[in-house]
Amino acid sequence: MARIIGDVEVVGTGVGEVIVETWDTLLFSLSLAVATLVYSPTLALLALAPVPIALSLAKATGKAVARRTVAARQANAALTTFVQEA
Question: Domain range spanning residue 22?
Fold first, then answer.
């Protein structure tokens, strides 16, 4: 039962954070890129050059965090089961 509650909590929190953070990040990044392009196209290209590398690193880090989160939740579920049965 604790695992189901934990799963629902993770999904609810995750969906809420993803929606808010995605829109916030996309709108801010887009407005910053447009403003920089208007100010100086050369500066904009130089400033945006490392973005693909940063996105790749974020994706790789996200996978590592996801693996650790799953492992922690499995350990918590095992501990909860042990305590409830004892």
Answer: 2-85
CA angle 55, 58, 61 (to 5 degrees): 155
* Helix (DSSP H) and strand (DSSP E) numbers for the chain: 3, 0
Return the pLDDT at 78. Answer: 87
- Can you tell me the distance from the alpha carbon of 12 to that of 18, in angstroms, rounded to the nearest whole number? 10
Q: What is the pTM of this model?
A: 0.51
Q: 33 exposed, middle or buried (CB, 10 Å; 0-12, 13-18, 19+)?
A: middle
CA distance 16 to 23: 11
**What domain count does the chain have?**
1
